[in-house]
Amino acid sequence: MIDNETDHDLVIASFHAAPLTASNSLRRNQIHAAHAELMSMGGGLMSLMVGDFNYPFFTKNLTAQMKDAGYDLTLSDRRTYTRYKVFKGHFDFATSQGLNIESVETLPRGASDHLPILISAEYGQDAPAADAESPAA
After folding, report:
1. What integer pLDDT is reported at residue 125 of this predicted model?
2. Residues 96, 72: contact at Cβ < 8 Å?
3. CA–CA distance, 63 with 73 (Å, rounded to integer)
4. Furthest-apart CA pair in the chain: how many Å?
5. Which of 80, 84, 95, 97 could serve as a FRET partner for 41 with CA atoms 20 to 30 Å apart?
6. What is the pLDDT of residue 137?
7. Is the Cβ–Cβ distance between 59 and 66 less than 8 Å?
8. Which of 90, 106, 85, 4 is nearest to 54 (CA)?
9. Which residues does the chain have with pLDDT short of 50?
10. Distance between CA atoms of 70 and 82, rounded to whole angstroms?
11. pLDDT tens for residues 90-107?
């Protein structure tokens, strides 16, 4: 997409990982595959992927892996899933590249079993504008 106010190109994606019955390894592979697809759509562009990562445990390891892959991982300010005593935590969050995430706010419950989140972000210093040469055609 192109931000009409600032003329920045941006790739935005919604993500939904395998359920908790799957392994964290499978979910990490899904996240990496989704990031690869984002790169194929707009390599070198800022990107934001938001959704249900189903990854409430061991997020420090995931954060480190995302950092190694060039992405920032940002958790919400509060838990996004609290339906069952065993399964509560930050299931929904964001990965980004080239953006400064100011906040990930957990909103009141809607129709979903997850609480929705609202991402507030600014463009990073090195954010390319839409008129800059871009590998996406």
Report:
1. 73
2. yes
3. 6
4. 50
5. 80
6. 34
7. no
8. 90
9. 130-137
10. 30
11. 678 899 999 999 988 887
Pairing type for strands 8-16 and 2-3 reads antiparallel
Question: In angstroms, rounded to a whole number, what is the distance separating the alpha carbons of residues 31 and 51?
Answer: 11
- Amino acid 68: pLDDT: 93
Query: CA 120 to CA 126: how far, in whole Å?
Result: 18
Instruction: Label each residue of 78-136 as H, E or C.
Output: CCCECCCCCCCECCEEEEEECEEEEEEEECCCCCCCCCCEEEEEEECCCCCECCCCCCC
- The DSSP symbol for 22 reads S
The answer to whether residues 45 and 98 touch, using CB atoms and an 8 Å cutoff, is yes
Domain ranges (residues) in the chain: 2-123
56 alpha carbon, distance to own chain's centre: 14
Beta bridge partners of 10: 46
* CATH code that applies to domain 2-123: 3.60.10.10
Q: Give pLDDT, residue 34.
A: 95
For residue 87, the model assigns a pLDDT of 62
Q: What CA–CA distances, in Å, run from 90 to 56, 93, 118?
A: 5, 7, 14
Both tokens of 4, joined, read 């009409």
Which residue shows structure tokens 């839409």? 130
